Amino acid sequence: xxxxxxxxxxxxxxxxxxxxxxxxxxxxxxxxxxxxxxxxxxxxxxxxxxxxxxxxxxxxxxxxxxxxxxxxxxxxxxxxxxxxxxxxxxxxxxxxxxxxxxxxxxxxxxxxxxxxxxxxxxxxxxxxxxxxxxxxxxxxxxxxxxxxxxxxxxxxxxxxxxxxxxxxxxxxxxxxxxxxxxxxxxxxxxxxxxxxxxxxxxxxxxxxxxxxxxxxxxxxxxxxxxxxxxxxxxxxxxxxxxxxxxxxxxxxxxxxxxxxxxxxxxxxxxxxxxxxxxxxxxxxxxxxxxxxxxxxxxxx
Length: 300
Fold this sequence. Notes:
Blueprint (H helix, E strand, L loop, with lengths): L1 H22 L4 E6 L7 H16 L3 E6 L2 H10 L6 E2 L2 E2 L3 H25 L4 E5 L6 E5 L2 E3 L8 E3 L5 E6 L2 H8 L3 E5 L1 E3 L5 E3 L2 H11 L4 E6 L14 E3 H9 L7 H13 L4 E6 L5 H7 L6 E4 L5
Parallel strand pairs: 1-2, 1-13, 2-10, 5-10, 13-15, 14-16
Antiparallel strand pairs: 3-4, 6-9, 7-8, 11-12, 15-16
Helix pairs in contact: 3-4, 6-8
């Protein structure tokens, strides 16, 4: 009897997923992969399996990955000092070489290899391939207070995106591949820029008019003042939560990334806890979901 109940429950889980599989068949879903999910061996394998399953049930997943801790470890090994300004790594020429080497040569290929080893078909790219991401040097202004002009800080080869050419991604998707993208872009003169992975994911999602943008983080999602998970927000509700300090710290850039993507035509964005096993599948294929979804004010 126990076995029969277990099998029935399993069948119910599969049936619950069916309408979501139908709804997202052919849909482009951009995933920002970072945080603990990139470090823990079990979570890494589960992430790869989630992406492969998404592909096999008819979705078009695209992965944009970070790599901050791995870059930090490598710089330490090479005895290169690192400085941060408001959470952004100051990137001189020497540091940029290491960033590119670690992101493109090491982290990207590890993710590609993990997906391919488990039965997927992944291809690694950086923003420099096929003119995917054109960038320029980011001008960073630090607020000095009400009665002083902002300070202009040179944070080196940190870039902001000026354009996305989606052709190389579209070709890979059409050929059945899963694109894995390192957040590095090229300037007009071919110079290399280090770009925040959340921003890259948001811009790529907008360029492809993705159905979903999912940011994997090391938090449950957006929390209320009472520390309870807010499972759903509309764009118009976010402003008040920023103003009253409910959304603060490292969550602010992630929220801004989601808002930019929604303004760019993405249907729905999600901030979910990458520390949970199979968090992506639970968010996409179940009614309740596991994180915070942020919706466009226009119900598409």
